[in-house]
Design goal:
The chain is α/β, with parallel strands linked by helices. It has helices spanning 18-32, 39-57, 63-78, 84-95, 105-112, 126-136, 148-151, 158-168, 183-192, 218-225, 228-232; strands at 6-9, 117-122, 144-147, 176-180, 196-200, 213-215. It has a 6-stranded parallel sheet, with helices on both faces.
Length: 246
């Protein structure tokens, strides 16, 4: 039996390549509205967006305000006219069409689904995340998908994780592992909920001590989750999730 029998996984930056999807959707949006589609405007937007998401995680703003403000702030920063709400709406439509995966993520879910209950716990916009997870091929591996809009709380609020555990029917929380790339949302949130945490430092950032575990590759996650006998069976095709009609 696996060391951890339930993995609560972040989406963007953990299994989905949000940076790739974000860049595509941003340039498509700027071009559609005939605004400067440059790397400089992208960097300005990313800075604004990150600041707003940090405020959300710290409970200083609501998601509705974040979504309403980010493109309005961008237009102001670049001295352009337009409707921030319209830009944001179009951007989200485009974002939902880009189900980019991080390298190895789909193969990792195929292996991990053999030994553990898997679920997504995400702060993203519900219809966008649902669309991307379905199109990426990840959704069938998940025993649950928990999006903050539907739960009514954002990470690092422990309610996100408590809701997932309750709906998944998990009784032994000592064998639950929160896996994500954000120290402020995933790792702090997991700790708030009293759960073990694993920081995905796939980008080679400066090491941090907040998480119980740190990984730089999927292989390292296998070694955390699986017992030796399970590791020996990696790659075998007697999968738990045999999807019908695919």
């Amino acid at each position: 039996m696996a060391y951890y029998t339930c993995l609560l996984l972040d989406a963007d930056g953990t299994v989905l390549d949000f940076e790739a999807a974000e860049h595509k959707a941003f340039f498509e949006t700027m071009e559609h509205f005939e605004l400067p589609a440059t790397n400089e405007t992208l960097e300005t937007y990313i800075k604004i967006n990150k600041e707003l998401w940090a405020a959300l995680e710290n409970g200083k703003i609501k998601k509705e305000k974040l979504l309403a403000q980010r493109f309005a702030k961008l237009l102001e920063a670049i001295g352009a006219q337009g409707s921030g709400a319209e830009l944001n709406r179009y951007y989200l439509e485009q974002l939902g069409t880009h189900p980019d995966l991080l390298p190895g993520a789909l193969e990792a879910m195929d292996e991990l689904a053999e030994v553990a209950t898997l679920a997504i716990v995400s702060n993203g916009v519900e219809h966008v995340q649902t669309s991307r997870l379905e199109a990426s091929g990840l959704a069938p591996y998940m025993d649950g998908i928990f999006i903050s809009e539907k739960v009514g709380a954002e990470k690092p609020n422990r309610r996100m994780f408590d809701t997932a555990i309750r709906q998944l029917g998990i009784e032994d929380t000592s064998r639950v592992l929160v896996v994500g790339d954000s120290l402020s949302a995933d790792i702090r949130g997991g700790k708030n909920a009293g759960l073990a945490t694993c920081w995905c430092n796939f980008a080679g950032q400066e090491e941090a001590e907040e998480a119980d575990h740190t990984i730089h590759s999927w292989q390292q996650l296998y070694e955390l989750v699986m017992e030796p006998e399970e590791l020996q069976n990696l790659g075998q095709k007697n999968r738990k999730h045999q999807f019908e009609n695919q």
